[in-house]
User: Which sequence fits this backbone?
């Protein structure tokens, strides 16, 4: 086999795997199942260009970041919708038995504050 005159070209599964820092088996899976850009020569050897591999990795990173952003936005919207619908929160509180407890505790606290804030009348 002649040495590769272009160091940017990765020839063979071993050199592709080495460039990725993965095993030959993982590199093969990424090529066949996940679209890692590589071409099989008539002799049966996988070849690719380092730039194509780096672009594939970067594109996957962009997709992952976009998915995370969309998930974060969806969660944020969901939280805003809940906080924007007090009726839904009241229904949830009622279902959990929170409203009555909270209302009773709140009324008790208000009554206690009223008792202590009233001026004491002297009985003469």
Assistant:
């Amino acid at each position: 086999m002649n040495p590769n005159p272009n160091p940017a070209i990765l020839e063979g599964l071993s050199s592709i795997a080495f460039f990725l820092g993965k095993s030959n088996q993982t590199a093969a899976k990424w090529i066949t199942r996940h679209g890692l850009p590589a071409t099989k020569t008539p002799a049966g050897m996988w070849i690719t260009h380092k730039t194509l591999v780096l672009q594939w990795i970067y594109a996957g990173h962009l997709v992952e970041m976009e998915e995370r952003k969309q998930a974060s936005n969806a969660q944020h919207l969901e939280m805003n919708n809940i906080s924007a619908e007090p009726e839904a929160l009241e229904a949830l509180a009622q279902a959990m038995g929170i409203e009555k407890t909270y209302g009773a505790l709140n009324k008790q606290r208000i009554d206690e504050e009223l008792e202590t804030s009233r001026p004491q009348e002297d009985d003469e």
In short: Helices lie at 13-20, 24-34, 50-84, 86-96, 98-117. The radius of gyration is 33 Å. The chain has two domains: 1-84, 86-117. The beta strands are 9-11, 39-40, 46-49.
